[in-house]
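> call design_seq(struct)
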């Protein structure tokens, strides 16, 4: 009798463990599959060419395939615009700050300036372009140096390019284009330089 009871207990214990493990396995959540990258470096994508993709593969920066048609001034008359940064990722906010300040300034004119032109640009079906910050333009220039022939469709000209980074009340930072003898520097805001818009995705 004892052995029979013992056998029943073992059987019941086995059934409980089996059911418990079965329930546990059934309730286990599968790890979500990683998202596929939206685009890769060098792809023609959403209005331009991808030159930077973050670690998630879901966000990055796109550069327009060409400069704006005309060389532009940073400001038509110099005055201090507080709040611009030089760091990677500040170009979009810089552009909004500068464009809004220029539009509401006492010396506002109908002449397009670099940040305003990018802010108002509607190109290739997109209207969220911006004037890159100093570090964004530096990084893009380094990208062009590293990738060579792959970037022929959207490389920078032998020119000087405005960034959205103010340095002093009357000067802003610029970046030299490809094969230019100039170095990274600041220049009077009323100087005419080339402009290359970017946008984020």
């Amino acid at each position: 009798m004892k052995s029979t009871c013992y056998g029943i207990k073992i059987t019941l214990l086995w059934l409980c463990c089996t059911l418990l493990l079965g329930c546990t396995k059934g309730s286990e959540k599968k790890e979500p599959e990683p998202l596929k990258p939206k685009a890769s470096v060098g792809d023609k994508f959403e209005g331009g060419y991808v030159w930077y993709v973050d670690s998630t593969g879901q966000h990055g920066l796109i550069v327009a395939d060409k400069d704006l048609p005309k060389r532009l001034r940073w400001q038509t008359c110099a005055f201090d615009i507080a709040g611009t940064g030089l760091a990677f990722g500040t170009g979009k906010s810089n552009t909004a700050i500068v464009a809004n300040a220029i539009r509401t300034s006492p010396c506002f004119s109908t002449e397009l300036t670099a940040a305003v032109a990018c802010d108002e640009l509607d190109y290739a079906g997109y209207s969220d372009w911006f004037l890159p910050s100093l570090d964004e333009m530096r990084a893009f220039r380094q990208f062009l140096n590293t990738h060579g022939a792959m970037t022929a469709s959207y490389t920078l000209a032998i020119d000087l390019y405005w960034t959205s980074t103010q340095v002093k009340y009357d000067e802003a930072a610029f970046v030299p284009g490809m094969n230019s003898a100039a170095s990274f520097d600041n220049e009077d805001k009323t100087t005419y330089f080339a402009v290359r818009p970017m946008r984020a995705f």
